[in-house]
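[stage:ingest] chain + small molecule (adenosine-5'-triphosphate)
[stage:ingest] validated
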Amino acid sequence: MSPVSLSLKAQIRQSAAHRQTQVSLKQMVNFGRNVTPYTLLRSSTFLSRELPIRLAKRISELDSLPLGLATTPSVQRIRALYEMSYADLAALPAPPLLPASLSLNLPPFEADKTIVEVDSDLDAEAWKSPPAEIPKAVLEYNREFTECITTVKTRDDRVALTMAQGLSEVKKLGQSQQISQQPNTMYPTIMPKHDEAAQNLLPFDLRAVLDRFYMSRIGMRFLIGQHIALAKTCSDPASTTPGYVGIINTRVSIREVVARASQNAHTVLQATFPNLTVLPEIKLYIATPASNPASKIDDVFFMYPPSHLHHMLFELFKNSLRATVQRHHNKAAINQISSAMLSSNALNEKNPFPPIAVVVAEGEEDVTIKISDEGGGIPRSGLPLIWSYLYTTANMESFVKDGEERRRTMAGYANQPIFYGHGFGYGIPSARLYARYFGGNLEVVSLEGHGTDVYIHVARLGDNEEPLP
Ligand SMILES: Nc1ncnc2c1ncn2[C@@H]1O[C@H](COP(=O)(O)OP(=O)(O)OP(=O)(O)O)[C@@H](O)[C@H]1O
Ligand SMILES: [Mg+2]
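[stage:predict] done
[stage:export] tokens:
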């Protein structure tokens, strides 16, 4: 081991001991309105301290993953990527300091108390009325920083998938080796009813560790995505869609996101069951508000990053579609492939599948989204297992190969490839993390023999801080 990597490891250990600084949706929006190179610098400065802390915490946690997971090739790969990202951030020059006068009215990020000192290189007096011309040092730092975190984010793109592969590596190892002989400490009363599920689980609960890992990853990706988008707005304001602050839409339309997520989930379903001639329909109902029963609203708007909302709906729609098709496929005509299947008129009244109903209710505190299907439900004893990241009843045979990435991209998300149903069991737990990230929640209620209801609660006020581990 070279002395360089030794000192990097020491640095990582040190960073991991620092506290993370949580942010809220509201804070991010207030901060990102009217972005200037100075706000961007403020954000860079915050992230240049915050991201290494968050990365370091994850790296040390990866080292302590149980059951040999830490040494699987997949987890080693994730660790190497995160170390590389940590090193890149550590190698950046220190951000130029701004005088306190400029930092007024900027967001109350706890971590950047230190950056309002006056830098000797920049004359504090001159900055009392900020120069019309932005100092080169500021522009240069902003550019370099944005470039660096763009690489950090790209490196992380496949991490969730890689982690899922790590889990299946351990699972395979466990099935062939001693792990299967260990006493089951996970769900003792449930397991006997679920032979097939038992094979899909590790002998003790990795859920908490994985929840922490994935939650932190959501947070880092959000912060980076937000900064990159703000940098774009700053350099090219016309490129930003009105209503957006970074990647947050201050008035996201639930109808629009439901439509996009349906389209993408239908695409996956079609790839999974290529012989279906019709697909279950996904119908949206907007609940009439109790406060105004005469109103006929047909959409609900609230502040949220649409990509997060899309992630949750897409995962849940995939599940509901699969359950519906598996339960009712004998009623559907199979093998007459219709090319226009994905167009909405193919989802017509003759559709033999019971539709998936999406009901959206707008309250003062929450927007609640209920997704109801008639896919037969989940047995009550199996319900606790769905949060485990490994519980799946997906028949891998009928699915596209593990993690295979098709050349199609998500409708509405340029360059984002669709990952087909991997059957890893990642869908529901990850959707709940997204819901919780901004103070919401996700619940699953099963009507065994009939169908499943999933409730997503989105906190409207947006002042909940990230629930970081
Ligand atoms: N709407 C539903 N109806 C019936 N069973 C469901 C429903 N949603 C989930 N399940 C059950 O819960 C399991 C876990 O779902 P989850 O979305 O977490 O993983 P998956 O769909 O198996 O795989 P992935 O989402 O990673 O591709 C599913 O395999 C299925 O058995
Ligand atoms: Mg799923």
